[in-house]
Amino acid sequence: MDGVVSVAELQTHPELDTDGDGVLSEGEAQTLLGGDSQMDPTSFHDRVWAAIRDKYRSEVLPTTPPAPSVPDLTEPKEEQPPVPSQPTEEEEEEEEEEGEGETEEEEEEEEEDFQVQGEQPKEAPPPLAPPQPASPTEDKMPPYDEQTQALIDAAQEARNKFEEAERSLRDMEEAIRNLEQEISFDFGPSGEFAYLYKQCYELTTNEYVYRLCPFKHVSQQPKLGGGSPTNLGTWGSWAGPEHDKFSSMKYEQGTGCWQGPNRSTTVRLLCGKETMVTSTTEPSRCEYLMELMTPAACQEPPPEPPADSDHDEL
């Protein structure tokens, strides 16, 4: 065998004739092969065998004894004796069982003959099994020896200490920058306004919540609905007159107004027992005026002159 089923091989089986003339022509054989002149055994088994299996008879001699011939039930000629009488029900059942057994044997023989004549069809590959996830034990690294593990632990400990030292250094540098910035502020002739640093004070109105953080910034946020705060200015400088420099503060370069300047705020300091924002207004567009009451704004009374003490002359 050459490993293919050809038209010539099919023509040796006249039982596959399709037009009833008892001969399988080349065109009929080519039609059975789907228009091809030859076909490999696998394709032949998948596409053609199911259609011709009932008619196919192998050229190889059967290994089992031939099945008994079926009596000719065609109508006899006039000179022949009449047709025998109909068989009984028991005989019919026996004949049906014999016929079924013969059919099964013929089908087995045909399959065996086809496998002998052509190459045995290739078996379908087994279905691919889905890849199994790797178990945790497979990915786990084998344990290190004691010496290597000790080195790894020491390196990890050194890395942790280094990271902790870096964090401490960053915190220290941040603290130094804050102190330098704090020292750079002018907190008044006697540092009386220093306590305002790092503090914030709020005033709530019908529409907004105003927040003043002295020496840092001023902001405004809607009272209802939340939203991000609007910057009304960052610390600029003392803005009081020459004779009373520390009576007001100036906060500048806040969020820009629509088609207008950046917002700014002037904070006027008033003498009071408590530190609190008492009012906030907008005298002109994008320019705010805030009043902060604080004991630091109170002027110290001038020192009283020492009273003259009466001396009794001796």
The CATH architecture of the largest domain can be named as Distorted Sandwich
Q: Percentage of helical residues?
A: 25-40%
CATH-wise, what's the superfamily of the largest domain?
Answer: Mannose-6-phosphate receptor binding domain
The gross shape turns out to be elongated
What is the residue-averaged pLDDT?
76
CATH class of the largest domain reads Mainly Beta
Number of helical elements = 7
GO molecular function: kinase activity
Biased composition (Acidic residues): 88-114
Biased composition (Basic and acidic residues): 43-58
Protein name: Protein kinase C substrate 80K-H
Can you tag this structure with a few keywords?
314 residues, alpha+beta, Cation-dependent Mannose-6-phosphate Receptor, Chain A, 3 domains, 7 helices, 10 strands, transferase, Protein kinase C substrate 80K-H, Man6P_isomerase_rcpt-bd_dom_sf, kinase
Question: Would you mind describing this structure in some detail?
Answer:
This protein is of the alpha+beta class. It folds into three domains: 5-71 and 93-117, no CATH class; 149-184; 194-297, Cation-dependent Mannose-6-phosphate Receptor, Chain A (Distorted Sandwich), CATH 2.70.130. It is built from seven helices and ten strands. A hairpin with a 7-residue loop joins β5 and β6 (230-238). It is elongated. Mean pLDDT is 76; it is low at 59-63. Residues 43-58 have a biased composition (Basic and acidic residues).
Strand and helix layout:
Blueprint: E1 5-6, H1 7-11, H2 26-32, E2 38-39, H3 41-47, H4 49-52, H5 89-117, H6 136-139, H7 146-184, E3 201-204, E4 208-213, E5 217-222, E6 230-238, E7 248-252, E8 264-271, E9 276-284, E10 287-294
